[in-house]
Amino acid sequence: MAAFRLFILFSRNCAGCITAPYATYRKLAKETTDFEQSLYIIFLSVAYFGFASIVRSGFNNPFLLTLKFNALVIGAVAGFLFITGVYFLLGRALGGTGTIKTIAFLWSFTLLPTIIWFFGTSILYLLFPPPRTLSIPGKTYSLFFTIFSLGLLYWKLILAYLTLRFGIKLDLYRIVFIALIMLPLIGLYSLIMYHFKIFRIPFL
Amino acid sequence: MKDKTYQLLVAKMKEISEVPPQEIGPFTPLYKRFVPYVKFNPWKSALALSIVLTLVLYLFFGIRWIRLISLLQLGF
Fold first, then answer.
1. pLDDT tens digit string along A20-56?
2. Can you tell me the ipTM of this complex?
3. A145, B18: Cβ pair inside 8 Å?
4. Distance of alpha carbon B42 from its chain centroid, rounded?
């Protein structure tokens, strides 16, 4: 029963992140919010990693499949801990007041656009495998894919901003400052993930 | 009843004062005009911005942009 209640709460917050992210994040940042609803985001992420491992490695080699799945999980967990840890340390250094628990909780909701993009891209990969051509269908597909990706990126940036705004209670200048520091760090994380063939595009 | 309304008002004031007010100097009025598009139903502005940016990418990069999409499709 508790799991069902959390699921309803999680669904409402997901809908809130789409229709009214500002008000939803303000509500989520309050201490009374149930932190356990993040479990559903973990579940969705793990479901994606399983799906991506099957798409990439297939069922033929269970060893490779397990290896791929574990690498994706470890890469994503490392990214999550890295981002929340750096946010917390930088936020505190700049006079913020949030706790790491709140930051981790709010950041977990920013994974919604990430999960949707990764799931969407892998399904589209199966339906319309690359490369794209210069034909009319190729261009049309590219247009829609770019709109889809940019729209989700915009949503992701809003949620990331709100994580710092309500999670650490910073003003715009400090948030921009943290973002400028984060950019090269995220670049470094992406390079490491690419080097070890875990993520070509970082799961953040 | 009056006490309840007062308590709700105090709770709302507390909620508003949780984060520092956003001021960005001479750009504050512009910022205040832009913010509602992000606060409520941001998918509308997301869609509009994405369409404009996509057309800009298409016009500026042409074939290279389509190659980039092929690469992005392999990025999952």
1. 999 899 889 886 667 888 899 999 999 999 998 888 8
2. 0.84
3. no
4. 6
pTM of the predicted structure, to 2 decimals? 0.90
**Closest residue in A to B63 (Cα–Cα):** A134
Both tokens of residue B69? 């999409």
* C-alpha Rg value of chain B to the nearest Å: 22
DSSP string of A117-167, one letter each residue: HHHHHHHHHHHSPSPP-SSHHHHHHHHHHHHHHHHHHHHHHHHHHHHHHHH
Q: Decide: A111 and A45 in contact? Cβ < 8 Å.
A: yes
Of the candidates B20, B41, B51, the beta carbon closest to that of A171 is on: B20
Kindly determine whether residue B66 and residue A134, on different chains, have CB atoms separated by under 8 Å.
yes
Amino acid identity, position A135: S
